[in-house]
Amino acid sequence: MEWIEIFDISLLRSLLRSTAPIAIVGMAAAICSAAGVLNIGLEGKMLNAAFAGVAASYYTESMWAGLTAGVIAGIMTAVLFGLLSFTLGADEVLAGLAINIFSLAGTTYLMRTLWGQAGFFSDPKIVGVEPIHFTFLEGTFLEPFVSGFTYSVYLMFFIAVGLHILYYRTRLGTAIRATGENPEAAEDAGINTVRIKWLVTVFSGLLAGISGLFLSLENLTMFTEGMSAGKGYIGLVASSFGNATPLGTFGASAFFGLGDAIGIRLQGVYELDSRLILMIPYALTVVVLILIGIRQRLKVRPVAIPES
Amino acid sequence: MITNKKKSSLILLSLMLVLSACGGSDTATEEVAEVVVEEESLDSPATTAAPAAEPDGLKVGIVLGALGDLSFMDSAKRGYDKAVADLGIQGDYVETEPSERAAAIQNFLADGKEMIITVGFSEAEITKEAAVANPDVQFAIVDMVITADNGDLLPNVSNLIFKEHEGSFEVGYIAGKLSKTGHVAFMGGMDVPIIRKFQTGWEEGARYANPDIKLCDGYAGSWGDPAKGKEIALSCFEQGADIIFAAGGSTGNGAYEAAAETGNFAVGVDSNQDFMQPGTMITSMMKNVDFAVYSAIKNRTEAGMVVSEIASYGSAENGVGPTWLVDGSSLFADEGPADMAAQVAALTEEVKEVRAKIVSGEIVVTDVTAGG
User: Of the four listed, A10, A49, B24, B342, which is most buried by Cβ atoms within 10 Å?
Assistant: First the structure.
């Protein structure tokens, strides 16, 4: 395969599929960090949602039951995080880590006890989500670009735009950003910061749930041990890279998605060593973290002048 | 200004990424143990339930990885179960995470086992150590040949290996004949020599069937990442391939799913996986691990003393190859598209001829692991 042949429509499609889970969970991270909540536990939320989705779909043979159960599992995990962090006062980072470790072990344990399977669980009774085909686009040049994805791929654009409007055009958005930037001042202005933190946490559970369901019911129709494979963390980095803004996070996620999509195709070019190529998404993340560090160092220190 | 909290969280984040980069790439089958799930102690009900154990039967212990993979480990367990049922041995098995296996061997030794079996090339080091230290105990290892430091075989080890390249050649031949686009694909789990052995055999077989065949390949870097397996398969299908051979544990399931979704075809691995996507799975490249394990126990029982052997299972022994030959079944003949299913019977005869040529040496399949 030649170098230039990598860039075609199939790369774009692969890019969108790879971006969706990162972008959706990334925006969950973004809204949390905008409100000053460092939500490490997204990985666990994704995993629980992915598992609950498969379990519910398997037992009821209904896609909707699977999707509902997955979203509920994501939100419940978020509520657990909120209870640990806000109600019981645990350190947010530790609470998040605990949730991630617990979720990995818990879903693995349940998979083995319920279905006696190690590594993965796949069964024809699990009803997955079918791709959406836009019949009115059939035969047009647009079809290969926009048709035939599952709903999350379309949803991520709406979430990004919706969150952007929420951030900058609504009172709630202002309250969220105020809570993150200066909680004391926000309290003085009559904002209930604890309520805001709860709100974004629960909302992040919903988004992480959708992202987890993308893995187990949309992209694949199976559950695999640890199938979130670090996407929750990559989402956190994307939100950091994107300055915790919805559109910035979305752009950063697409950057990571591109790394993933190109990696698979690069293996075919010049017989590059697959192990080197497979490092790309993780190496990119480390590079981005370094860039964030440099950017923050270069930022002009804010002068303590009260705003008018 | 960068606050201390922010700084420490960035550091933590990088750390987590490094961890998940390692953790994500290998789950169930090999390497890093992330979660200790359950270790059956040696006297738990599951292990003492072995039926038909004569009090003076050979005491055998087998150290397994995670069961339920519908593939490699389950096959080893089947061989052990058959030995327990047929040979009157006193058997114990233990299901372990990779980090627990050295201790599991020591437990078996402390329990007075006369034969200990390990499964998988990554167990070579710990098996060798225990075998050297306990010359009176019979050891057996699947997928690896253990040698002493001077290159000789150890006097008390049965080395059970497979000529995966020969079986892969046979399924590659089938794919080469059945591919309508003249383009077949290979998906590997980890990029390790044993998987390269599958790939080389597959590609040589496909080329033998169709000298103009085009090839596509990709490695996922994991035994447990079906999402990546699916992307690799889709990428190859989009380039024009229509049959994919997946040798990579549960990563391969993603490739099978991709094939079923896009109306393409797949070839399974290790166990008979034809049922996983009926009509999409043309066949599976079987490795008769169960037969190898059973035979090793039988040999030791009949010898009455420790034995040293390399038991190599290839086409000649019917130890590797397509389901069509190894167990004489073809789900594809019933479930596949009519035009392709109709070719199964004739193609089976052709593969038999190919096998005869491999056995006679007329066809020499490259073994990439040979010669160091």
Answer: A49
